[in-house]
Fold each of these.
Amino acid sequence: MAKYKRSSAGDCVISIALREGYRPDDVWSLTDNDHLRPDADKDIPEVIANGEKVYLPEKTEHEESGATDQKHRFRKPDVPLLLRVRLLDYAKPRANRDYIFEVEGEQRQGQTDRDGLLEEEIPFEATEARVRLKGNDEGEEFVFKIGYLEPARKLAGAQARLHSLGYNTGPTDNLMGPMTERALKIFQRDQELEITGELDENTVNALLDAHGC
């Protein structure tokens, strides 16, 4: 039976689909879910607003042929998620920095690219990831809450991205207070945008590009 599932903090289309037994692409591509992918936020199923209604279609049977009196193994396809973040130091990319990445008790090493961007696969059920820098930044650590990033068109999403980029908005409370307005103006100045202090389309796009998602 088809149904709607309302997202909560830490959810995205992929995690909801997999938890409910669907393939993420089958859910994301439905016209009933067009409201989840506004143009301003590009096509990112990993980021949806808290409280969004996600449409889940009626499940259908899938048949596979196979010889009788034999054992058959069916493997569920893996659907990796990518954590993409850009590490900055006073708005300058932390390029080619070595780091240790930790998620769900697993550690791996990597290096940011020339734009300070890192990409790491994470399991869909992960709720937190940590990045610890090495070398000149030895001991500096970043903690990321998986699935808690709101779309950039939402004020809470803009606040979270500005904070990650080093702009002080105060608390991520989805309220346009004086600190958030000042942070937006400084960001707009740094991006050579019209300084309005408002979350307009050009500012949203610039936040997405600067933040990486």
Amino acid sequence: MRLTWNAPVTLAVVGTSTAVMVATAIMGPWFTQWFFVLDPGRGWFNPLGLLTMLTYAFGHGSWEHLASNMTFLLLLGPLLEEKYGSKDLAIMMAITTVAIAVVNNVFFSTGLLGASGLVFLLIVLSSFTNLRQGAIPVTAILVAVLFLGKEFLAGFDSDGISQMAHIMGGICGLAFGLLATDSSKHNG
């Protein structure tokens, strides 16, 4: 029996996020603060600000935060890489990460870190995995309503969690799932 690198995008995100956490443990919290926290105060034209519009998803506030997000990524990522392909899933993740960063920088003044927006992308997108003849599964609608509704209501709590990132990740998952459904109608 041999090991296979079955989900390269998922494994790259998990590996990078874990490496960032290890580096932070060795070098100190400044490492994550500088390179892996989206800080709207840096501005749109600051090279570090632009870089962190992608890298914030690899930073995590604690080992528990990391473990929680990576567990969901490892559960859902391989399934979605098999369905959509590694390249397409990587593109979806990158678009989602930047979309969350833009919304955060435009509407909020708080920092942002972690892959929870990507987790919500995968949760909602996974409900589209058993499409048949371009139909929209009822489970996809229910997952979107339940997860996004819960996050919208939780947005009124001051718990330090960015429900906006969760909502945007879910919206992106819904949009990509519907786009895939629509393209399967035209291709099938």
Amino acid sequence: MSEQVTGRSDMWSNSFIFVLAAAGSAVGLGNIWKFPYIAGENGGGAFVLVYLICIAIIGIPVMVSEIMLGKLGRASPIQALLNLTRTHNRSTRWSIVGYMGVLTGFLILSFYAVVAGWVCYYILRLFTGEFTGADASTVGEAFGGFLADPMQVLMWFSIFMVVTIFFVARGVTRGLELCVRFSMPAVFVLLLILIGYGVHAGGFVESVAFLFTPDFSKLTPQAILIALGHAFFTLSLGMGAIMAYGAYVPQSVSVGTTTFTIAILDTVLALLAGIAIFAIVFAYGLAPDAGPGLLFETVPVAFGNLPGGALFGGLFFLLVALAALTSAISISEPAIAYMTERSKLSRAQVALIIGGVCWILGVGSVLSFNVWADVKLAFFEWTFFDSLDKITQLVLLPLGGLLIALIVGHVLPKQVVYQELGLLQERAQNAWSIVVGFITPIAVFLVFIIEVIREVFTHL
């Protein structure tokens, strides 16, 4: 006899809170830290165009699928997939996608929290007025000096992990809802202030041209996969976080409408962050391909030369840290939820265990910028930090998204999917089946294979 899907007593307070929570999961360092620097490294406009296409034809369908699986399964990603496959007499081996998501989220959190620690450190530096009147060279040297000190980096990474564990231990609704109510609107407001400063400084026009004028000569196969991987990373897809949040969605919430709202919020914030940061980059003659330090070498310059910059700069980094916190909580939720379901330990005890193991793994990323800077993965020449970043973004996230699309497009009964998504017309049903069943998985698979071949041949 098939096993029935279990219910949950813990739900989001309302649909608006779920949108904020899911947007808080999606809106984080991926938008404000990572998107600007990878856009800079990969040529700007052409990369942004590919990224937007990936969001539209791959990111949104996979997000719809993840939320729906969580909502139907009403459990952690692993248990939700077990519930659904048993209920509909499908192979329980598909639950491996849940295990992959838990592993991927765990790996991402270990290095994501390190970068979030950098943000926390910069809150202090901006509030104390350290960069008042500083030029780009001074700010760049200060960032380099910080990364070279392993104890400093370790301390701020540890502080961020402790805060994350605290909120995770309180539970999704009590912990996360406390964070998202005010932080997301405030981040948007401060980004608009930063764009206004870019206009005043004189780099706004160049920034818009760089981000929205495609130059396809700069677009490489690797850039295409990076754009695809970042579409998964920034929307928190393929790591079980959105599926875990879907388990707490009230039955009355529309999955499709909610997904579009989240994707639009996430994409708009990423583009605003890019415009703001590159306006400062060009106004001060900085290099747009500065890499992971871009946020930490541009924003302090801007606020250091802005009236009241110490206050607004510190507040900006504080809100970036809050955005990072909401994402970190969501990334950790799949592992927390599963261990809580499967063990007799309390949620707080599980949070401490998972947080502790994640902290140990994160030490490797901390040392990648100083003591272990010359320690590289033999074949690919990646540091420990680079290895986690690239393996999750280039392999695990796309693979997870591919398998999720296959589950929704080919494994679950189509009528169950159509009913949950409210697809009543045959035309809408056919369009959904084509996109999720064929276009999305084929696109992910082709780009994935191309990049694997490129990486192998590049390092032979």
